[in-house]
Amino acid sequence: MTRSTSIVRVLLFPLACSPTFIGLPGGHPLVNAAFALGVTLLFLRWDRRSPAVLGLELTWRPLRGLVTGLGVGTLVISAIALGMWALLPFPWAWNPRFAPAAAAASLVFFLGSNASEELIFRGYTFERLISAIGHWRAQVVTALVFALFHVLQGWPWHVALMGTTVGSLLFALVLLRWQSLPAAIGVHAGANWVKDLLLADPPTAKTLFAPLSPRPWTSGEQWLSMVIFDGVVLVACFILWRSIRRRGSSLLQLPPQPAATLR
User: Structural domain tally of the chain?
Assistant: First the structure.
């Protein structure tokens, strides 16, 4: 596939997935995820490539990738929570109103909503961008578009820029490390779920153990929490990149584009 063809399909793919941005009939994120998965499989078929390129084949591998990703996401957020517990001046306590059913429903919700995001942002489009413009340029483009998406969803721009861009880097490196989009979905969903379990202030029925602030967080405390968050995620990214460099990844060894398309 030429570079220009890859870029055209990168642009067409989000358009094909656009119904997920406004919500499909049924309303549940799992419906959106199923639609985005169907579009992904159709585009791979259009390319005459196997779903195994993204770890989506009908074997046990996608489930293993998802479970691995959930474990990585849990470890990352647990490390962030530990850093906040050590550095922020708030008491932490178990939540007596914690409801396991609410936490389970939250996990299902995140698996659906984050699967949609990963399928659209770090699935087919990211892999095609790598083949067209190279890995790190693809990382930058994907991270910035992902941040813009969250700004349009109502996030403050500085939170989207500082939080979602490093998150995008982490999810993409997980995809490259295990060559599995389900692993990236697992990290994304696991991180969001454990954030609800350990970091929600004020706590909800989905919160098991969290900081209890007797007053609103100061701007300095908010920035410190963001620094802890970004620092832990970037350390995880560094470890993943070292592992990728050592082990290699087929997604970074895509065939070069024809010279005539690189002008």
Answer: 1
Token output for 42: 């159709």
- Residue 176 contacts residue 251 (beta carbons within 8 Å): yes
Inter-CA distances, 94 with 38, 180, 225, Å: 41, 35, 20
Residue 20 and residue 184: Cα distance in Å, rounded? 19
CA dihedral 207→170→168→10, nearest 10 degrees, is: -130
Tokens 């939540």 belong to which residue? 95
pLDDT digits (tens, 9 = 90+) for 38-64: 999 999 999 999 999 999 999 999 999
Residue 211 pairs in a beta bridge with: 92
Q: Which residues contact 232 (CB under 8 A, 6 or more apart)?
A: 76, 79, 80, 83
Summarised one tens digit per residue, pLDDT across range 79-132 is: 999 999 999 999 999 999 999 999 999 999 999 999 999 999 999 999 999 999
Count other C-beta atoms under 10 Å from residue 73's C-beta.
29
Range of the domain at 96: 3-261
